[in-house]
Design a protein that fits this description.
- By secondary structure, the protein is an alpha/beta fold.
- Helices cover 32% and strands 18% of the residues.
- It is built from 14 helices and 17 strands.
- It has a 6-stranded mixed sheet with strand order 1-2-10-7-8-9. Strands 5-4-3-6 form a 4-stranded parallel sheet, sandwiched between helices.
- Helix 1 (45-58) crosses helix 2 (75-86), helix 1 (45-58) packs across helix 5 and helix 7 (257-271) crosses helix 8.
């Protein structure tokens, strides 16, 4: 019988499990997906939002007529807007400029005020999203900062609801629980409950973007929203969330962006589950885990949110091709591979050091990047701060405008335009029509090489 609720808040939680029959074909261990995108606000964060607001009301931190403020990649803000507006509060949400545009549109539809700010700067920078929302909280009378990263009502929501649901739905048969790690609330609360309920026999696996520091990455940017821990190379003090308890997680599966995004697309096309990229990360991890198990095991993987918030990104072929996640036979790969490995110049290099590096650069031009060493498959686009030209440096030395030991940064030009490795040479030539000396080619969202005018023809 269809449920009848007195409030939308009563429709938070109680999400179903679906067996992944197509993606799990040929794997002995069954894999069940916890469909958190079926929460009323579209994500697992509805649970944390309700828990945090009720706790703030109970503790007197949030008074009638007050204002709820939070920094978010989108989903927690949507949950706070849904719950907060329903309970009569003003809601201001600071959203990362890396989040999909759909999330900001959804927030406004729920009546939230949206403030866009960057997370691609050191944590100490006044323009960082977290600092922007803290200033708003100080300036607005009656404001309450939800602070999902350090708010223990976040993991408590999953101790009370998500964990017990998984345990009951599987009849206590769950042996492995897989979830992404963002604030840490979901995996800490759910995983912690399942470990206690099972007497410690349930194994908890963190699904993490390959670059995230949680699982041992370098902290450079990635393309899966809402999970992982980013570390700007100029951040002075790196803080992990208090909502995250590392001892709950037994191991990590580090998933590259391409595997995450393509798995999310497969979930829609093969399982009928239109989900976001973090669900792709979690399922890719669950598939790896399940392949190592037997029929006596049972894997539950949590799907955090809906793919409707990512129709302009992971579920859009044009976007996927432009960022180098989809490739065609007539793409740029055949030109990129002979060009050799990427040549990049650190933005804090000297003019002389840059010229030495540019000897091997196609067309005598290379991306200028932040100090973090390039990974094997390229440089994250947000860490590209400009370009370096051999012609410009040589001219500056010749006319006395620079010396070999001078810093190269004042001589940087604009960043090279980008094309995805799956795009065609004709598309790359069209970009060069703007007068640029070369294009940077993206593979899996990272600059992996440079193609000059001469190479493109």
């Amino acid at each position: 019988m269809t449920a009848v609720h007195e409030s939308v808040l009563d429709a938070i939680g109680g999400t179903p499990l679906f067996r992944l029959t197509r993606l799990g074909a040929g794997i002995a261990a069954p894999i069940y997906a916890k469909a958190e995108f079926l929460n009323i606000g579209g994500s697992v964060k509805d649970r944390a939002a309700l828990s945090m607001i009720l706790a703030a009301e109970r503790d007197g931190e949030l008074q009638p007529g007050g204002t709820i403020i939070e920094a978010t990649s989108g989903n927690t803000g949507i949950g706070l807007a849904l719950v907060g507006r329903q309970r009569g509060y003003r809601v201001i949400v600071g959203v990362s400029d890396k989040s999909s545009a759909e999330k900001s549109d959804i927030l406004r539809a729920y009546g939230a005020e949206v403030v866009l700010a960057t997370t691609s700067v050191p944590q100490e920078d006044p323009q960082h999203l977290f600092n922007v929302v803290r200033r708003l909280t100080e300036e607005i009378p009656g404001a309450w900062l939800a602070n999902q990263y350090d708010n223990l009502a976040n993991p408590d929501a999953h101790v009370r609801t998500t964990g017990p649901e998984v345990w009951e739905q599987t009849g206590g048969r769950v042996t492995h629980f897989v979830a992404g790690v963002g604030t840490g609330g979901t995996v800490t609360g759910t995983g912690g409950y399942l470990k206690e309920a099972s007497g410690g026999t349930v194994t908890v696996i963190g699904a993490d973007p390959e670059a995230s520091t949680y699982g041992g990455g370098d902290g450079s940017p990635w393309f899966v929203e809402s999970i992982g821990h980013f570390l700007h190379p100029e951040t002075v003090e790196d803080r992990w969330p208090q909502a995250y308890r590392s001892e709950v997680i037994d191991s990590f599966e580090r998933i590259p962006d391409r595997e995450s995004l393509l798995t999310a697309r497969r979930l829609a096309r093969e399982e009928g589950l239109l989900v976001g990229p973090s669900s792709g990360t979690a399922v890719a991890a669950a598939l790896r885990v399940a392949r190592r198990l037997g029929p006596e095991d049972l894997v539950v993987v949590l799907l955090p949110d809906s793919g409707r918030s990512y129709l302009s990104k992971v579920h859009n072929d044009v976007w996927m091709r432009e960022w180098g996640f989809l490739e065609d036979a007539d793409g740029l790969r055949q030109l990129l591979d002979p060009a050799g490995p990427l040549v990049s110049v650190a933005a804090d290099a000297t003019v002389g050091e840059a010229l030495d590096l540019l000897r091997a650069a196609p067309g005598g031009v290379a991306p200028a990047v932040l100090a973090r060493p390039a990974r094997p498959y390229g440089v994250a686009v947000p860490e590209v701060v400009g370009s370096v030209s051999r012609e410009v440096l040589t001219a500056a030395l010749a006319d006395g405008g620079a010396k070999p030991d001078d810093p190269v940064r004042p001589l940087l030009g604009p960043a090279l335009p980008t094309v995805g490795v799956g795009q065609s040479a004709a598309e790359a030539r069209a970009v060069l029509a703007g007068g640029h000396p070369a294009v940077a080619v993206l593979v899996d969202g990272r600059v992996a090489g440079v193609l000059s005018r001469e190479v493109l023809g």
